[in-house]
Design brief:
This protein is an all-alpha fold. The protein has helices at 2-22, 29-36, 40-46, 50-79, 83-99, 109-115, 122-147, 158-179, 184-200, 207-215.
Length: 216
């Protein structure tokens, strides 16, 4: 049983790297079999077709990301009971985690599969949608906790702000890859963090500015 689990994991690992490098359509079952060193029947024992493979990839990728989010923001929750500080600290820790990846983030599997949605059946397309909604819901929940205590400087929609944070992460991954600059991802995450901070923190007026206003 253990060997079967290891073989399945090995197939998914090889498949994810291939899909991120060249897309799902250009990744063939034959190349996965060759690199994994298994027979064709061995592959189909674990995945009956490419849609089944896609389901396995999504489940694995989503579980890893959910574990990362839970760990990072769980740590933030240990450091403060304030919901605003929890989000700000969590985004900072998240950015630090991404900055520590030696070669930069390898790419977003969900984004790659979204671009090639015609290759998948309806179930897989719905799984991609639900995965993205889940990430958005994670941040929306924290934003709703903030709004229960803090009044923002301008009216905001929790869903839209949550999507802004998610887009800064996914967009940062894409731009980092396109520019060959891994630092763009953590940079954009910190920009999203600063935007949230400005939405809920009062405007700071320097003493010099106050004196100028009074003098006028």
């Amino acid at each position: 049983m253990r060997k079967g689990i290891e073989t399945r994991e090995r197939i998914l690992e090889i498949a994810e790297a291939a899909v991120l490098a060249k897309g799902f359509g250009a990744t063939s079952i034959d190349e996965l079999i060759a690199e994994a060193g298994i027979t064709k029947s061995g592959f189909f024992y674990h995945f009956k077709d490419k849609n089944e493979l896609a389901r396995g990839l999504l489940a694995r990728y989503s579980a890893r990301n959910n574990l990362l989010l839970a760990g990072v923001f769980g740590r933030a929750n240990e450091l403060t009971e304030d919901p605003l500080q929890r989000l700000l600290i969590g985004l900072n820790l998240f950015a630090e985690h991404m900055a520590a990846i030696p070669e930069g983030h390898p790419g977003c599997l969900v984004a790659t599969m979204s671009y090639q949605d015609r290759l998948f059946n309806r179930e897989i397309r719905e799984l991609v949608t639900e995965t993205v909604k889940g990430w958005n819901g994670f941040f929306r929940g924290m934003i709703e906790d903030i709004l229960a205590i803090y009044t923002p400087r301008e009216a905001i929609d929790p869903d839209r702000l949550a999507r802004t944070i998610c887009c800064s992460i996914d967009g940062g991954i894409i731009m980092s890859k396109a520019l060959g600059q891994p630092g763009v991802l953590p940079e954009q995450m910190l920009m999203a963090r600063n935007y949230v901070k400005m939405l809920f923190h009062p405007v700071t007026v320097h003493a010099v500015q106050i004196e100028e206003v009074e003098a006028a």
